[in-house]
């Protein structure tokens, strides 16, 4: 079926139908536009969501738990998923919406052209019909005039009273009217024949061709809509494999969650390296009470009622100074004041008993959180954590040293090439760079050696902690210039036997830390050179003269202006002494 033959008289309806088709196409284009805007908004919101929950810390601060790493992997996959939604929106905008709008403009111009041709053909046919109609009316008018002339002539010709001149005049008038009627008849016949021909051409050639063009245009519009429907689905189908990979990545990340690994990481992150505290020995305060045999109470022999402290489980300084759970050492049960000490009988047991009443200087990490500065040798950390930090620093310094070694070797090779081929360059120009590299290597080696000494110290303490005897723990001193890794040392001076162990050469105890607010040259004798932001140990407070005695991490001591530093004093229990 063709519109030209079946709908030859439906020009106005075809005009309306083609306009409706273009409006429908533009309506679908608007639908696609709103759909791609939804995709763009969805992708943008997904990216904002990923950005909101992505870690903003450095890689060193990121948690290493498998659950966290899986969550970050899911965020990455979700970010890729958002990218695919953006691809969908972009392809819909280019391949569907843009194509529809361009095609709509082409359809509008083509439809306008065909309708103009149809209107022109209709106007020409109307013009031919008017010419034919005018000639017809003229022929009809001339025939009526000729008939009147014929009647007038016949009346005068039969009238005996009419003169000859009147008859001749009526006859000539009849002749003229008849001649005019014949001419109008011929003109009307010609116009009628012409109109019939043009009308046939109009309804059998021109209009069918115009309507056929309109039909082809409308069918192409329908085909284009079908193609865009398919493209609309193909855009989604093309990203389905990638989206499936994103979802598979999320499932893989979920399977990577390992609770045992996370538990091991917790142990590795927070393990202090301290040994659990030993049993408290029984202290019999009833030894000085005299009992009689007449008493009905059950008496306990001295040798059987007293539990002798086990040297392996006695409370050493390391156990007293460990970082207890929740930051506080459990208090011993309240009891009556102990009897006077007897140094001659058991001085070690007495000192250990005294140690139990003294709180460590640094009982938990909370003291560090209150603003205590970090130390270069990480002595503010527990042994295990300190060992890990030192080992990480040694590894990093070793990598830097290897880079410097490679750079030195490369410079030496380049120098040899310059010496063999002077035209390529001056060998002496590389000497400053080689010297600088050698200097950097020496600095790095020195740093590595220093950190290795600290590491060996920590490893030695960790390995021998469980084997120490109480006396060794009490009398142990840390190397000069640094704090002990366990925190601080507490001791009591309880007799002449122990006074000999702590002679006058021991360094002064650390009372706190300070941070240099300004640089100080320290040119005068007894003063200490410091730079801004240096961290020093306070070993003697300001006595009112404006000077504070401090010690560097290297062991160098001297006085610094009190107003030049920001002091953070340690809160020690009475009787506690801290050594570095």
What can you tell me about this protein's structure?
- It is a single chain.
- With 580 residues, the protein is mainly alpha-helical.
- The protein has helices at 3-6, 11-53, 66-158, 164-255, 259-270, 302-305, 317-320, 347-355, 366-369, 383-420, 431-464, 470-475, 496-499; strands spanning 512-516, 535-540, 547-551, 557-561, 565-569.
- The chain has a five-stranded antiparallel β-sheet, with no helix packed on it.
- α2 packs parallel to α4 (164-255) and α10 runs antiparallel to α11.
- The protein is rod-shaped.
- Mean pLDDT is 76; it is low at 292-372, 464-505 and 572-580.
- Residues 387-421 form a coiled coil.
Shape: rod-shaped
- Give me the strand/helix succession: HHHHHHHHHHHHHEEEEE
Mean pLDDT: 76
Give the strand order, joined by hyphens, for the main sheet. 4-3-2-1-5
Please count the beta strands (DSSP E, at least 2 residues each). Answer: 5
Query: What is the percent of helical residues?
Result: 55-70%
Report the end-to-end length measured between terminal Cα atoms.
Answer: 106 Å
Radius of gyration: 56 Å
Q: Unreliable segments (pLDDT under 50, ≥5 consecutive)?
A: 292-372, 464-505, 572-580
Main location: membrane
Domain REM-1: 380-457
Family: Belongs to the FNBP1 family.
Domain SH3: 509-570
């Amino acid at each position: 079926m063709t519109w030209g033959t079946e709908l030859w008289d439906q020009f106005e309806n075809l005009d309306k139908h083609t306009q409706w088709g273009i409006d429908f196409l533009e309506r679908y284009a608007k639908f696609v536009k709103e759909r791609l805007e939804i995709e763009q908004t969805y992708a943008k919101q997904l990216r904002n969501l990923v950005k909101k929950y992505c870690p903003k810390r450095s890689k060193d601060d990121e948690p290493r738990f498998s659950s966290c790493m899986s969550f970050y992997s899911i965020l990455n996959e979700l970010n890729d998923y958002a990218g695919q939604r953006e691809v969908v929106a972009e392809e819909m905008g280019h391949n569907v919406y843009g194509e529809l709008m361009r095609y709509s403009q082409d359809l509008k111009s083509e439809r306008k052209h065909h309708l103009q041709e149809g209107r022109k053909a209709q106007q020409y046919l109307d013009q031919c019909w008017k010419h034919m109609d005018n000639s017809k009316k003229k022929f009809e008018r001339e025939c009526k005039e000729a008939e009147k002339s014929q009647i007038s002539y016949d009346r005068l010709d039969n009238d005996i009273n009419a003169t000859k001149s009147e008859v001749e005049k009526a006859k000539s008038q009849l002749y003229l009217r008849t001649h005019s009627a014949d001419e109008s008849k011929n003109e009307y016949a010609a116009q009628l024949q012409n109109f019939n021909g043009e009308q046939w051409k109009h309804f059998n050639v021109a209009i069918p061709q115009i309507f056929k063009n309109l039909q082809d245009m409308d069918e192409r519009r329908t085909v284009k809509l079908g193609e865009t429907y398919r493209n609309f689905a193909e855009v989604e189908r093309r990203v389905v494999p990638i989206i499936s990979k994103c979802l598979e990545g999320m499932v893989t990340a979920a399977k990577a969650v390992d609770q045992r690994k996370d538990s091991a990481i917790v142990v590795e992150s927070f393990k202090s390296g301290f040994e659990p505290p030993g049993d408290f020995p029984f202290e019999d305060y009833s030894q000085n009470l005299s009992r009689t045999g007449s008493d009905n109470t059950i008496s306990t022999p001295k040798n059987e009622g007293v539990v002798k402290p086990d040297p392996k489980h006695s409370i050493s300084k390391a156990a007293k100074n460990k970082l207890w759970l929740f930051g506080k050492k459990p208090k011993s049960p309240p009891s009556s004041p102990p009897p006077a000490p007897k140094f001659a009988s058991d001085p070690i047991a007495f000192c250990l008993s005294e140690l139990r009443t003294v709180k460590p200087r640094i009982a938990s990490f909370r003291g560090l959180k209150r603003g205590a500065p970090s130390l270069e040798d990480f002595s503010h950390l527990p042994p295990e954590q300190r060992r890990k930090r030192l080992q990480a620093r040694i590894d990093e310094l070793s990598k830097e040293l290897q880079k410097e070694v490679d750079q030195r070797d490369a410079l030496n090779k380049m120098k040899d090439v310059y010496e063999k081929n002077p035209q390529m360059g001056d060998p002496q120009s590389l000497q400053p760079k080689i010297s600088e590299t050698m200097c950097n290597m020496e600095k790095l080696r020195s740093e590595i050696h220093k950190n290795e000494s600290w590491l060996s110290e920590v490893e030695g303490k960790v390995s021998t902690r469980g084997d120490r005897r109480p006396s060794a723990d009490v009398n142990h001193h840390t190397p000069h210039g640094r704090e002990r890794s366990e925190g601080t040392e507490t001791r009591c001076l309880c007799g002449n036997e122990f006074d000999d162990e702590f002679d006058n050469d021991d360094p002064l105890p650390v009372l706190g830390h300070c941070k240099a607010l300004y640089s100080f040259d320290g040119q005068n004798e007894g003063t200490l050179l410091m730079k801004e932001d240096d961290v020093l140990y306070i070993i003697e407070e300001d006595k009112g003269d404006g000077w504070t005695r401090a010690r560097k991490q290297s062991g160098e001591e001297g006085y610094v202006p009190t107003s030049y530093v920001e002091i953070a004093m340690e809160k020690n229990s009475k009787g506690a002494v801290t050594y570095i």
